[in-house]
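Quick one - first record:
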Amino acid sequence: MAKLTRRDFGKLTAAGVAGVGVTGIAETAAGASASLPSLTSIVTRAVDLPAAQGHRVVVVGGGWSGLTIAKYLKIHGPDLDVVLVERRALFVSHPISGLWLAGMVNLEAITFSYLDAAAHHNYAYLNASLIDLDREAKKIYTDQGWLSYDDLVVCPGVDYDYASFGVDDPAHEQLLKTRYPAGFVSASEHVTLYNKVKNFKGGVFVLTAPPGIYRCSATPYERACLMAAVFKRENIKGKIVLMESRDQPAVMAEGFLAAFSELYSDVIEYMPSSTISSVDPETRTLSTDFDDVIFDDAAIYPRIRGARLLEQLALADPKSAQKEAAIDPITYNAVGDAHVYAAGDCRPMPFSKSGGTASSEGVYLARLIAARARGESVPWESPHTLCYSMVNTAPAEAIMVDGKYRFDKASGQWAHFENTAINERDEAKGRKAFEWAEEHFRDMFG
C-alpha cells in the first residue's frame, strides 16, 4: 500500500473526505503506516472546544500580531466568538529580548502565559499546530482536530531563507540553525544566544543583518551595541563583527554609527557593503566578494521569508521575493477570499516587521473584521512604527524612530510619512524603552 502523501491529505480535508467517506479513510489508514490512524482522527474529530456562540473568528499564530488581533476583536465585537490557535505553550518576546541578553531585565520580564491572555480578554486559546485548511468548507485542521470558522486570520510569522546566501546543503543549514542561530524567531534561539554571550571566551563574534525587509530593522545594530556593552563590562577580550550588504544601518543610521564609534570603537567592527556569498559552518567562515571572515562564534541572520505554512495553505504570493502572503494590502484579505486574512510579519507591504507595527496593524484589522461581521466597514488606518533601541547599558540610553505609512496611488508604491528619527541617545529614551515594552505586554496579556 502506498503512503498517504500530504497532497492526498489535502484532498481528504476538502472534497476528498466527501468522496472517500470516513470508512474509506479508515480502510486506507489500516493498510498503511502505523501513524495514519491518528491522521484519520484529526480529519474526523472536532477540537475540544464549545460550539461557537455567534460569528466565530479563528486567529492562527500567537505573536504580537495575533495576540493583539484576538484581544481587539473582543473589544470591537464583544459578541464575536474568538479562538486563538498557537502551537507554543509559552510566549517569549523577541522585542526587548536584547535587554535580557545584556542583563538589563530577567527572562520573566519577556515571558508570558497564553492562558492569562485568553482569560483576561475573554477569548479561547487552543494549544495546537495548524496542519491544513479547507477554504470551501471554512475549516482548519490541527493536530488537535478540526475547527470551523466564519473568518480566519493567519499570522504565521517568518522563516529563514539560508539559500539566500548560498547555503543549499541541508547539513550546513542544520549546523547554522543549531550552532549559530540568528535569534529572531524562536525562544530556543534566544536562550542559545544568551548562553553564547554569557560563555564567550574571546575572539571574533560575527553578527549579520540580512538584505530586504526583516524582523526587526533596528535589532542587529542594537544587539551589537548590547553585546559590546556586555563584553566591556565582563572584560571579554573579543571583537564583534557586524556584516551587512547595505552601506549604512537600515534605520537610525546616525545614532547607531555614533554609538559604534563613541562607545564601542574597541569592540565593534562594522562591515557595511559586505554581501555574503557563502557560509561554511564547519570552518566557521563567511565569504564575500572581497573578504573571508573567520569567526569563533556567531549569530547568523539570513534573509527572511514568509512562513512556509503560507505555501502549504496556498496563501503565498509566488511572485514575492520573500515568499510573503498574497493579500489585498488594504483589507489584508487573501486574494479571492473575503473570509481569510493574513497579517503580521508575513504580509508583503513594506512596513517595518516590528512588534509595535504588528500591534498597531492588529488593532486596525480587528476593527475591520468586527465591523464586517456587523455588515459595516471602516476606513484604512496606517500601522504605527514606534521603536526605541537601547545602545548603552550604563547608563541605559536609547535612540528612537517614529513613523507611519501611506499608499501613493499614482506610483502604486508605499512611502513613509510623519517619520521622525531621534539619533541622540539619552536616558529619557532609555526609560521610554522600558515603558513601551510594559505598555504593550499589559495590552496583550492584561
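second record:
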Amino acid sequence: MLNKAEVEKLKHQGANNVAALIANYNDTNSIEFILENLGRLPNNFNPDFLYKLLTHAHSSIRLNAVKNIGKLNEKANTNTLYSLYKNEQNSGVKREIVSAIGRQRKIANKAILFEFLNDDNPKIVCQAIRALLVFKNDNEIIEKLKLLANHQNEMVRTIIYKEFFLENSSADLQPQAQTYDFLKNIVINADTLEALKYAPSESVHLTFTSPPYYNAKDYSIYPSYKAYLEFLEKVFIQTHRITKEGRFLIVNTSPIIIPRVSRSHSSKRYAIPFDLHPYLIKNGWEFIDDIIWLKPEACVKNRIGGFMQHRKPLGYKPNSVTEYLMVYRKSTDKLLDWNMRNYSTKIVHESKVSDGYETSNVWRIDPSFDKVHSAVFPAELCKRVIQYYSYKGDLIFDPFGGSGTVAKTAKSLDRFFFLTEQNSKYFEYMKNKLKQQDLCDQSKTQFLTLDQFIEKSKNEPR
C-alpha cells in the first residue's frame, strides 16, 4: 500500500526507483501523493522523471513536479522551466516556476525575472520581486523594481514601498506593549477631534467604538450624509495616527433609516458600514473581518408588520436584527507575531482567552437598554472585543464614549481606557457610573475638561 515511509525509502535508494513507482500508478491522486511526500531531495537526486511530468495533463501534477525541481536550486534547468512558463495556462504552476527559477539565486536569470514582472497576475509579479530582491547590490535591478511603485496592483506597490521608500521612525516611539501614563483611565469632555490633537502618536492599542448614527438621534445631527462621513473620516484618520503599528480598530455600525416626512414621501435608508469602509481603507486601515451582532427579533423595531397584513411583493421589509462589527488593522508590513512578541511571557499567558470563546463571526448577544443613553454597548459585546483584540495592560480608546461601557469593561479586564465624549449629559452620567466602580479599585478614573487635558499632556513625561 502506498504510504509516506515507502516514498521516503525509495527516494534515498535513487530517483529511478521513485520514477518506477510513479509509472505503476495512472491515477492523479497517487502521483500527487508521491510528489507531495518526496520532502528534501538528496544532492545526487536525478530529476529527469520530474521534467517528463511537466507535460502532464493535470495541472496539479505539473505544479508538484515544478515544486520538486525547485528544491534542486542551481541544478534546475532554467530554459526548460522558462519554456513551460510561456506555454502554461495555470497561474499556480506559473507562480511555482517563477519561485523555482528564483531559488537558483543566479544573476544570470535577471533578464527572465524582469520578464516575469510584466505578468498580468500580481501574485506572479510579487514572486518575481521576491527573487530579484536577493540582488540588492545590483543597481539595474533596484531601479527596475522602484518603477513598480506605480504598479496598478496594491500588493505590488506595498512591497516596493516597504523595501525602498519606507522611513523607519519607530526609534522615537514607545515599545509596543507600553503607553503614556497620562492617557490611562481618563475621560475627556470635549469634541474628540479637538482632544485628539494632544494625544501622542502610536499610544493606543485598541479602539472600539460605535459612532453616532447619522441624524437618527438628537445628539447626532449633521447637515448632510456626506458631511457625516467626512467627519468620521477625520476621526479615524486621527485614530490611525494614535494607534500603535499593526493594532486594531473595531467599528460597530449598522444601516439606519431616516423616517419619511409624510405619506407622499419615502423613508431613506443609509448603509453606514459599507459607505464608511472606503474612507477607512483609503486612510491606512486594512480590512480584517466583519462580525455580525445578532439580536433577538423581539428586541428590534417591527418593520414587517405591514407586509404581514398584505403580503404584496415589493413591500417586504425584514426586521433588522443585526449590526456590524467591522474589524480593521493599522496597515503594516509586520505579521501579528511581531505584535505578540512585544509582550512578556507572563502577560501573554494571563491574557489568553478562556474556553467558551466564540468561533464564528455571528455573535448572538442581547442588546442593552439605558434610561439616559439610547444606544449603549452590551457589556458582553465589549468584553469579547477587548479580550480578543488586546492584552492586559493595553490602552483601549473610544472616541464616542457614550455611557462608558468600554471604560467599565476595560477596567474589569485589567486594561486601561482613554475616552472622549462631547455631550455633557453623557459625560456626567459616566462620572456617576465609573466612580461607583472606582470605589473597589485603586486606579481612579480622571474626568477632564479639554483645557485640563491639554495642560496634563504638557506636564506629563513622554
